Amino acid sequence: MTFVKITEQPSPYDHLEQCSVRELLEQINNEDKKVPDAVEKAIPQIEKLVTEIVKRMKKGGRIFYMGAGTSGRLGVLDASEIPPTFGMPNTLVIGLIAGGDRALRNPVESAEDNSEKGWEELLAHRISSLDTVVGIAASGTTPYVIGALRHCRENGILTASISCNPDSPIAQEADIAIEAIVGPEFVTGSTRMKSGTAQKLILNMITTSTMIQLGRVKGNRMVNMQLTNKKLIDRGTRMIMDETGLDYNASQSLLLLHGSVKKAIDAYQSEQES
């Protein structure tokens, strides 16, 4: 079967420079509406991945996201949000981008074409069979990612891929291939648009459901979030008020004493029971 990059096919819209601002916005929105349906079709594969990740993380495993360009940036973004949101160490979900941190703001020429660099970076992190490596590539053809996944499979490390083309090379190297086929982009080939949106939704699903399964959420609340600003301290205080019936000042004092909503509530409940 010939591999066809749907992500590189011509946009269904043309003469964009002749459109009004309203027309452009409505057309972009029409295309964006296709993304959730494409992600929904991939839920069985996402479910399989999360189930495997949770089993491994309970034994001390980690998640590695790997990508180049927009895909790499999205992986780093999702990884960077885990510590403040769920109170987890920044060593458990790690985003690697071709070209290193400099590539987060500026393109690093040809970095994604090095098929050995990704594996070298994983080795530097002491990758093990408890870890999971998720390759992200809208096109599904990024050598930096493909090479890393190939080495991982050769070494018994669970691999997954997130791509927006069916039956792509990256999927061939993944134990679990997640494909969100969103169709041609509004601006031909601009995968920062629908493809990027689909990838972001999938990454949200992976880490959020994993953290919930690992006990980092109570009810529907981020009880392990880091108290890094006044807004979060206020949010945490109100969580404690709702759970304990204490007033605002007492709840905030309890929160600041223990450092997290969960620890504060556990300590209060333990005291009440004793």
From TrEMBL:
PROSITE patterns membership: GCKR, SIS
GO biological process: amino sugar catabolic process; peptidoglycan turnover
Pathway: Amino-sugar metabolism; N-acetylmuramate degradation
Segments forming domain SIS: 53-216
Residue numbers annotated as active site: 81 (proton donor), 112
The keyword Lyase appears for this protein: yes
Protein keywords: Carbohydrate metabolism, Lyase
Oligomer status and interactors: Homodimer.
Known function: Specifically catalyzes the cleavage of the D-lactyl ether substituent of MurNAc 6-phosphate, producing GlcNAc 6-phosphate and D-lactate.
Name the record gives this protein: N-acetylmuramic acid 6-phosphate etherase
Name of the encoding gene: murQ
